[in-house]
Design goal:
Length: 302
């Protein structure tokens, strides 16, 4: 991956305008590798040049497989814009990319204005987020919770089949989150079932619009399990429609799932563990009508 990323940075720096490139991991912690991103900081460009730059970078995202590109415009007045691409697709929401953006933007601000601690407004393709810097490599953002509706029993049975679980391992009906073009959310009885999923990726891409989020409790009868003593819930995220069978660490998914677990455990803050092969750790706290998603971010190279 390191050699591939170096080659990518060389190609980005060869573009006909000045860029800064960073490799960043978001939501990593002890035992969790987090989600890796390539962050590209663009200078102030005229709209015609910006469109060309975004098109070039989107095409590069096709060549570099599962690398996610976070493209940041020049920071002005504590605000910035971001565009997310994955395997050539423009991504609507990218929580780990937004957290990586927070790290890079505060780093850019610090270089210009010594130390900057004010919140940064980040405009993405579909929403406006507020970014924050905390101590010890921790960053966060505020994100709205999408509306959720209970799906039919037929949809729940279909998702159970696509994920390779029996209906008795599913709690209630599935949820449709954010509209027909967004997520399906399925709740399982326990973490063991969540870890053992055998998704039918080709069929998931065929029968779902965007992605499937699957979650399960990591507490039993009010007590935390020994295997995950500091976490409230586990999560896995499947999006083969975007050429990424299972995402490593998905902030946007935790925003939606945390709202359920906060109600379940009657608390404002919950900790989530993404049970992908890389793993990711999340702290999500309710903040009025928003959710604050917090995690660790590190720059791997510049």
């Amino acid at each position: 991956m390191g050699h591939q990323m170096t080659t990518l940075h060389d190609r980005l720096r060869a573009l006909p305008y000045a860029v800064k490139c960073y490799s960043v991991t978001a939501f990593q912690y002890r035992g969790c590798g987090g989600n890796q991103h390539c962050a590209v900081v663009l200078p102030a460009l005229a709209q015609s040049f910006l469109r060309g730059a975004l098109n070039n970078i989107q095409q590069l995202s096709v060549l570099y497989g599962e690398t996610i590109f976070v493209v940041l415009c020049k920071v002005e007045s504590n605000s910035a814009s971001a565009y997310f691409f994955h395997n050539g697709y423009a991504v609507q929401r990218c929580g780990s990319g937004s957290l990586a953006a927070a790290k890079i933007l505060y780093q850019e601000y610090s270089a210009q204005n010594e130390v900057n601690t004010k919140p940064i407004q980040l405009q993405t393709g579909t929403q406006r987020l507020t970014l924050y810097r905390h101590s010890d490599h921790q960053y966060s953002y505020l994100s709205p919770v999408l509306p959720a509706q209970i799906a039919s029993s037929q949809v729940t049975k279909l998702l159970s089949f696509l994920l390779g679980v029996s209906c008795r391992e599913v709690v209630g009906n599935a949820f449709n989150v954010g509209g027909r073009g967004d997520y399906y959310l399925l709740l399982l009885k326990d973490a063991a079932t969540l870890k053992a999923l055998q998704p039918k990726f080709r069929l998931i891409a065929q029968y779902t619009q965007r992605a499937v989020i699957v979650t399960a409790p990591l507490k039993n009868t009010g007590k935390r399990t020994l295997a995950a003593s500091t976490f409230d819930y586990g999560l896995r995220y499947f999006a083969p429609q975007y050429g990424n069978q299972e995402d490593a660490a998905t902030g946007s998914a935790h925003v939606q799932v945390a709202a359920y677990w906060q109600r379940c455990y009657r608390t404002h803050c919950v900790r989530g563990l993404q049970l992908s092969s890389e793993g990711g750790q999340f702290t999500v706290c309710r903040h009025k009508q928003w959710q604050r998603v917090k995690g660790e971010v590190r720059v791997l190279d510049c």
